Amino acid sequence: MSKNNAFNKTTAADAVKAPEVNPVKTEAPAETVETKDTAAVKTGKKPGRKPGSKNNVKAKKEPVKTEIRLQLHGNDISLTDLEEKVKAQFVAEGHRAGCIKDLTIYAKPEENKAYYVINDSKFTGNVDLF
Hints:
The chain has helices at about 5-10, 10-20, 25-45, 80-90, and strands at about 70, 75-80, 105-110, 115-120, 125-130.
């Protein structure tokens, strides 16, 4: 007999021993399940928690309320009041307040005047500052 034939021959005893050599495969998935559970515990994440739940929602911040006032030589005016004064003057000239698309106001306290430009230089004018 050649050496190759000796290795290829199997006996009945070898056939019975072959299944015993391989471990049962049901144990391996049990080990991986345990590692997944320990990984979840280590990260601090709770299973089943979804992003965007009530716990993850951040509180919305309220916008800051700002009022700017101009004071000079004992006179005082709020910039919102100045804007209303300019719009009232514009309407008094015979225009509609709804046609104002943009408004730029230039306050010149040394002249006691506020100059305005409405709708990209289409309308201009001035009002008393105080």
